[in-house]
Amino acid sequence: MAINKSKSIKHNGSKLFVFEKDQNFSFLGKRLFIIFGKRGQTRGLHAHRKHNQYLICVNGECEVTLDNGHEIKKVILKSPEIGIEIKAMTWSKQVYKKKDTKILVLCDHTFKERDYIRDYLIFKKIVNEKKKEKPNILITGSLGHIGSYLIHNKDFVKCFNQIYLIDNLSAERYVSLFNLPKYGNFSFFNIDLPNHFVKKIVKKSDIVLHLAATTNAEASVNLKGKQKKKNFLSTIEVANLCCKYNKKFIFISSTSIYGSNKGIVDESCGKSDINPQSPYAVSKLKEENFLQTLQKKYNYNNFVILRFGTIFGYSIGIRFHTAVNKFCFQAATNLPITVWKTARNQKRPYLSLVDACRALIFITKNKMFNGEIYNILTNNYTVNDILNVIKKNRKIKVKLVNSRIMNQLSFNVSNEKIKSDSFTFIGSLKEEISNTLKKFSNLNQ
Ligand SMILES: NC(=O)c1ccc[n+]([C@@H]2O[C@H](COP(=O)([O-])OP(=O)(O)OC[C@H]3O[C@@H](n4cnc5c(N)ncnc54)[C@H](O)[C@@H]3O)[C@@H](O)[C@H]2O)c1
Question: What's the rounded Cα separation, in Å, for the pair 200 and 222?
């Protein structure tokens, strides 16, 4: 259900309300009807199996209740400026509140009685059956920066039936479990990977999204012994189980496995363009290679490797080690923004959380489990590009510092491969920075 406003044009005392396809409604109309309602009357009380409608109250006042089986919304329509798209499989009811209330309805099909569901219990039964057709997903590392965005995102949550969450709470993002959407079926397991208990959950899942990792690339330089191998061992365990039980596996790798400064690198680049600079990135590459070994050895192709750019954008489990978020935190707390000496004009790949989530939905819906690798990034930016956006929101001071991994080369990564499968990137650095800074809105202004 989408509620939106028309374009209204005033001319010589008269008013014109314009509703357009794609701006207001998403379909081509085939039928139009007008209802002259009686005050106090209730109409509707049905859902359509496949047909979509767009509803405008051209006169009077009407209370519209919309129920998609997951949530119920009430909207009062009392101006011809507002329209509502009522999508297929939405139970709707209209109560005519005033005398002379008139409703105009545009439909994408001609009348067919068989498209109507007039019994609410049957409607609920169909919704529940459709829900069961959805896959179960296991998300490891689900409380982190990316995971917490996904499990609070309506479009993502609605793609799945059961959502199993695993996290060892090493990052202490307990808050990510607050206020999970009520239309999702979540179960949480406090598990530290690798751990034999995960086998039970993998068996119950159709898709495994593997996010669990110790993620601070800079700090990974100082990891020792078991901690150093933990990311690798966790991925090996989960990948082996997915291979054994032929589950769909989404492995989140990183564009930090590149390190070439020779123009733009893509997924098909040679070994000379693969140059991971931190133990974190070295491990990601080893984990990718392990999956490719399973592919060769067992003909296991039911996986996809997504090389994510550095994430920007707010989620409830946000972390602040990475460039954009860290700079936002420093700007908001009046600290100097620490920039690695050589990094100001270096380009690096970045990914907005909005696009990360949309890409995961796209991969799942289009069943792109084909043993392929895709670069997932909104754009390549320099540190200066990021600082310029922050400067528009806050006063900043910049301090140049040394870093053990600052000799990492500048690199530009191509996102053409996934785009050629008709995926579009829509994330905005400007919007995400402004959203993140707004979270600190009462601080040091
Ligand atoms: N954020 C980025 O910029 C970025 C970029 C590229 C790739 N990635 C990858 O995406 C994934 C998620 O990143 P994020 O930013 O959400 O990281 P994050 O650090 O915010 O979250 C990782 C989560 O995994 C959990 N975890 C860590 N080790 C675990 C283990 N052994 N067992 C169970 N849980 C464990 C942590 O408690 C944390 O909640 C990681 O694999 C990361 O390498 C992230």
Answer: 34
